[in-house]
Specification:
Helix content is about 25%, strand content about 20%.
C-alpha cells in the first residue's frame, strides 16, 4: 500500500496503520446520514480497555434508542503523563434529534454520570477548522458532513486521521476498535 500522509499524522510521527485509516475514511465517505455529525471524545481514567468499550456501548445504545443511528472508530493510546486513554470519533445522524442532548460535558447530564459510574472521565474535542464553527464564529462540539460541501468532508477525513498517528501507539494490543455495521434503514440521498 502506498504511503498515506495527512497534516495531522505528519505532526505526530507519521501514519501508524494506513489500512485502518482507509476504513475510517470509507466510513465518512460512504455515510448515508442526512444530517451527519462527527464528534471526537477522549476517555481517560482506566488502565483497562473494558471500561472504555462499556462506555461506547452504553453511549451508542442511548443514541440509537433516541432515534440517532451512529457508528464509530476508536484507538487506545498510552503516554507517560496521560496513561492509557481512548480516542473515539463517533458519527451520528442528527436529522430527527439533536445528539448534543446526549453528547455533552454537563455534570448533571446522562453521559457525564454514566462515564463517572464506570470510573472514567472524558473530553469533547471540538474541530479546529472554522468550517465547522457556528455563524457567530464559535466552535461547535462536532463537525458536519454535508454531502454538498466536499471541503467539510475532506476536513473530517483529516481530523479523523488523528486516530492513526504513530505517536503513542506502542503499549497495547489490539489498538484499533470500531462499531459493527448495523442494518439500519435510512433513506437514500439523491
Amino acid at each position: 500500500m502506498r504511503e498515506i500522509r495527512t497534516k495531522v499524522t505528519d505532526a505526530n510521527d507519521g501514519m501508524h496503520r494506513a489500512r485502518e485509516f482507509q476504513k475510517a475514511k470509507q466510513m465518512l465517505e460512504k455515510c448515508r446520514y442526512i444530517n451527519a455529525r462527527l464528534y471526537h471524545l477522549t476517555f481517560i481514567g482506566s488502565e483497562q480497555v473494558k471500561p472504555y468499550q462499556d462506555a461506547m456501548k452504553a453511549l451508542c445504545e442511548r443514541l440509537r434508542r433516541n432515534h440517532m443511528p451512529c457508528q464509530w472508530k476508536a484507538c487506545i493510546e498510552a503516554e507517560e503523563d496521560k496513561g492509557l486513554h481512548w480516542h473515539v470519533y463517533i458519527l451520528v445522524e442528527a436529522k430527527h434529534r439533536n445528539p448534543d442532548h446526549i453528547i455533552n460535558r454537563k455534570s448533571t447530564e446522562w453521559l457525564t454520570q454514566m462515564v463517572t459510574k464506570l470510573g472514567l472521565d472524558f473530553y469533547l474535542n471540538p474541530p479546529q477548522n472554522r468550517l465547522h464553527w457556528d455563524s457567530a464564529g464559535e466552535p461547535k462540539n462536532y463537525a458536519t458532513l454535508p454531502k454538498r460541501k466536499p471541503e467539510k468532508l475532506d476536513d473530517c477525513i483529516e481530523w479523523i486521521s488523528y486516530l492513526y498517528k504513530a505517536r503513542s501507539k506502542f503499549i497495547h494490543k489490539p489498538i484499533y476498535f470500531s462499531s459493527r455495521p448495523t442494518k439500519e434503514k435510512l433513506p437514500v440521498i439523491i
